[in-house]
Amino acid sequence: MLPSVMLLTNARVVTPAGVREAGWVRIAGDRISGVGSGPPPPDAPTCHELGGRWLVPGFIDLHVHGGGGHAMLTSDPAEIRSAASFHRAHGTTRSLASIVSAPFEEMLAGVAAVRDVVRAGTTSDGHIMGSHLEGPFLNPRRCGAHDPRHLLTPDLAAFDQLLDAADGTLRVITLAPELPGGLDLVRHAVAAGVIVAVGHSDADHARAMTAFDAGASLVTHLFNGMRPFHHRLPGLVGAALAHPGVVCEIINDGVHLHDATARVAFQAAGSPRIALVTDAIAAAGAGDGEFQLGSATVLVRDGEVRLAGGETLAGSTLTMDVAVRRTVRMLGLPITAAVDAASATPARLLGIGDRVGTIEPGRQADLVVLSDDLEVEAVMAAGEWTTSARLIS
């Protein structure tokens, strides 16, 4: 049976080669089968005229703890799917489920629940690709909103327990390589096929470079949860921006970073080494009030999340569409750079850049339609519209 064919026409299509004005994308089944400009091919029974709107690849969020009132750290797979569904409406077609530091048994149950979601293999409510362990092997000096009672010294046996519970679905772990046994854990995790991110770390420049040379390839929310950059003590920040094999997460919400700082990061590393992330918690999309992040109580006021009784930032209420929009509007970068950081860069990091993250023939049809103002109007996952946006009827 031949796959169904659909055409999206008259769009500003953001591709790796640049923006195709008056562009079209041909979709056969769940795959992109053609991309061009001008008159589209006449062989599609279904055609959506996009009226000059932007067409970009689906966003991939490497770091998200929840959304829509739902948390990723849970033993209930339905809770994880609900959080992913919230972010799907904001253009995130794939993500990792980030698990905050918690009692070890809860973390084991959390990665097992993510495993069950991944095995279910559904894309209609949000494609979870695996888990991201943000802990428990973090430095108490830079723990941020992580409860220090639940942090552990790097331990290969403990890591292996988490790895076994995930059963092939643990994709990323954030750790502090300067802790005793930290570098051994970097090498061990990389050998097990897990991406190592350096974060919540007090590493100096030399230790950070050693960790990167040992195989760590990601930095968790650059500038946050680490030593500040100093012109004589560049620390983890300086090492990450300078090392060509390292991708740097950026929380571009205007709270975690000054816009000028985010702009410097893009200019120093380039969009192929910047990954826009949300670090969103359950409070995203749920309004102001009191919420839980693991065992911590957090307060949300005017969209900013802080630990109750203090000023420590505790995740965000950011969504990926807002991060992309701010990159263009507030940082002044071209949409091609914003889309690279939201889609292509995380896809390459995860080793799936040949399947998703760009609009090219052969890639999966994960697409987002954006208005002139870069607001989400429709979302497609694996060739199926997943939103009830007014554009698609």
Report low-confidence residues grouped into runs of 5 or more. none
CATH class of the largest domain: Alpha Beta
CATH architecture of the largest domain: Alpha-Beta Barrel
Q: CATH topology of the largest domain, which one?
A: TIM Barrel
Q: Which series of helices and strands comes N to C?
A: EEEEEEEEHEHEHEHEHEHEHEEEEHHEEE
User: How many domains?
Assistant: 2
How would you describe this structure to a colleague?
The protein has helices spanning 77-88, 104-120, 156-166, 182-191, 205-213, 235-242, 259-269, 320-329, 335-349, and strands spanning 5-15, 18-28, 31-37, 46-49, 54-57, 59-61, 66-67, 70-71, 92-100, 127-134, 170-175, 195-198, 218-219, 247-250, 274-276, 289-293, 296-301, 304-307, 367-370, 376-381, 384-385. By secondary structure, the protein is of the alpha/beta class. The protein has 2 domains: 5-57 and 359-385, Urease, subunit C, domain 1 (Roll); 59-349, Metal-dependent hydrolases (TIM Barrel). Strands 1, 2, 3, 4, 5, 19, 20 and 21 form an 8-stranded mixed beta sheet that branches. The chain has an 8-stranded parallel beta sheet with strand order 6-9-10-11-12-13-14-15. The longest helix is centred in the first third of the chain and has 17 residues, at 104-120. The two termini are 26 Å apart. The model has no long low-confidence stretch (mean pLDDT 95).
